[in-house]
């Protein structure tokens, strides 16, 4: 996407051999980049949410293995590198998927070839993510186009957290159809949930949409249901950090409540995701590991003061305990459809397998 007239991906290799990423922890107040030189740099960037979003976490992990292979390409070191990266963010399935892709590519070559192959494979994963997200936009665009024709006015779309360009390598998942519709001249408006406690909607989604000139309004997380009751939401599109083989969708905490409100008000609820987000080993969303994050994300908030300086303040009493779970699970029954790079399908095993018949065949062989 474009920032001040310049196209950026969220991650790319440099001519000096490092891997450069956009430091999302500084947005929306400062657009800055960070160079990753080592495995430890990549793991820290994921853990601290310098990079975040399931597809981008996977891409960064892939480059993390490449950086590790340049340090030491032995089987022992690369296995330990994979364990280190896997432990950074347990919920996002793209992380495990990318590590599996890297392992498959590197096991076929000798240790002396691995660094070169690893960087090429990481670049391939990134290029594939861009194309998958572009395709998600194409398929999701049709939903918005049809809705615009039906209502004959601006289409109001509600989204939660950030599932745009910043969450992926480019384009995004939930926001890719929004960008496609905007570029096609379809009148749209996006309701942006602030997405407490890290405010990825208010800081990242709003930043993206503003940079692309997409009409939007930031709202408190609990306003969405009221807007739905008043007929001011036409559809909900969210991303996913892990989707089970049966269609349950794990996404940023608060997504489930939006799905319940959408169902109560007969508003379609879509989840947009690439193939790497699907965990074919799980049927039940309750089996997805839910990341518990630092209490300080909830007890403190950072913003720009009237003087222009960034300040962090505490908003919770010192004596109050805190529970900060990062994700919740929306049951498949509340999902109108899944939007993937291969098209739309029902949120069910049959629906997913209709788009990914190779997985259906593999499942049948395992079960036989």
Task: Describe it.
- This protein has 12 helices and 18 strands.
- With 368 residues, it is an alpha/beta fold.
- Mean pLDDT is 95; it is low at 363-368.
Rg over alpha carbons: 20 Å
CATH top level assignment of the largest domain: Alpha Beta
N-to-C SSE series? EEEEEHHHHHEHEHEHEEEHEEHEEEEEHH
CATH fold type of the largest domain = Rossmann fold
Main sheet properties: 7 strands, mixed
Short structural summary:
With 368 residues, this protein is of the alpha/beta class. The protein folds into 2 domains: 2-129, translation initiation factor eif-2b, domain 1 (Four Helix Bundle (Hemerythrin (Met), subunit A)), CATH 1.20.120.420; 133-367, Translation initiation factor eif-2b, domain 2 (Rossmann fold, 3-Layer(aba) Sandwich).
Secondary structure layout plus pairing:
Elements: E1 2-3, E2 6-7, E3 11-13, E4 19-22, E5 33-36, H1 39-47, H2 54-71, H3 75-86, H4 93-106, H5 111-151, E6 155-159, H6 176-183, E7 188-193, H7 200-212, E8 216-219, H8 224-229, E9 235-238, E10 242-244, E11 249-252, H9 255-264, E12 269-272, E13 278-279, H10 296-299, E14 300-304, E15 310-314, E16 327-330, E17 337-340, E18 343-345, H11 349-355, H12 357-367
Parallel strand pairs: 6-7, 6-9, 7-8, 9-12, 10-13, 12-17
Antiparallel strand pairs: 1-2, 3-4, 4-5, 10-11, 11-16, 14-15, 17-18
Helix pairs in contact: 1-2, 2-3, 2-4, 2-5, 4-5, 5-6, 11-12
């Amino acid at each position: 996407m474009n920032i001040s007239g310049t196209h950026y991906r969220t991650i790319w290799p440099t001519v000096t051999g490092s891997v450069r990423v956009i430091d999302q922890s500084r947005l929306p107040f400062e657009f800055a980049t960070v160079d990753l030189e080592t495995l430890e740099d990549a793991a820290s960037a994921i853990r601290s949410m310098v990079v975040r979003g399931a597809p981008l976490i996977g891409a960064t992990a892939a480059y993390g293995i490449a950086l590790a292979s340049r340090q030491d390409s032995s089987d022992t070191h690369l296995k330990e590198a994979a364990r280190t990266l896997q432990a950074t963010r347990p919920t996002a399935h793209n992380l495990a998927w990318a590590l599996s892709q890297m392992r498959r590519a590197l096991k076929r070559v000798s240790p002396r070839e691995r660094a070169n192959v690893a960087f090429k494979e990481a670049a391939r994963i990134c290029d594939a993510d861009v194309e998958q997200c572009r395709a998600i936009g194409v398929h999701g665009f049709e939903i918005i186009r049809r809705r615009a024709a039906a209502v004959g006015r601006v289409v109001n779309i509600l989204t939660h957290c950030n599932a745009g360009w910043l969450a992926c390598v480019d384009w995004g998942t939930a926001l890719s159809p929004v960008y496609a519709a905007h570029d096609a001249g379809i009148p749209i408006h996006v309701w942006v949930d602030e997405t407490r406690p890290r405010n990825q909607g208010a800081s990242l989604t709003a930043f993206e949409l503003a940079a692309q000139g997409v009409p939007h309004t930031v709202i408190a997380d609990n306003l969405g249901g009221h807007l739905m009751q008043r007929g001011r939401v036409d559809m909900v599109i969210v991303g996913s950090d892990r989707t089970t083989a049966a269609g349950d969708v794990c996404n940023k905490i608060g997504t489930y409540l939006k799905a319940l409100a959408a169902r109560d008000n007969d508003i379609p609820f879509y989840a947009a995701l690439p193939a790497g987000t699907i965990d074919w080993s799980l049927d039940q969303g309750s089996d997805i590991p839910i990341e518990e994050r630092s209490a300080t994300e909830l007890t403190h908030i950072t913003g720009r003061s009237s003087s222009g300086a960034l300040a962090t303040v505490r908003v919770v009493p010192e004596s109050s305990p805190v529970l900060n779970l990062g994700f919740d699970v929306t049951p498949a029954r509340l999902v109108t459809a899944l939007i993937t790079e291969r098209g739309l399908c029902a949120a069910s095993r049959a629906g997913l397998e209709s788009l990914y018949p190779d997985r259906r065949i593999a499942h049948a062989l395992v079960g036989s």
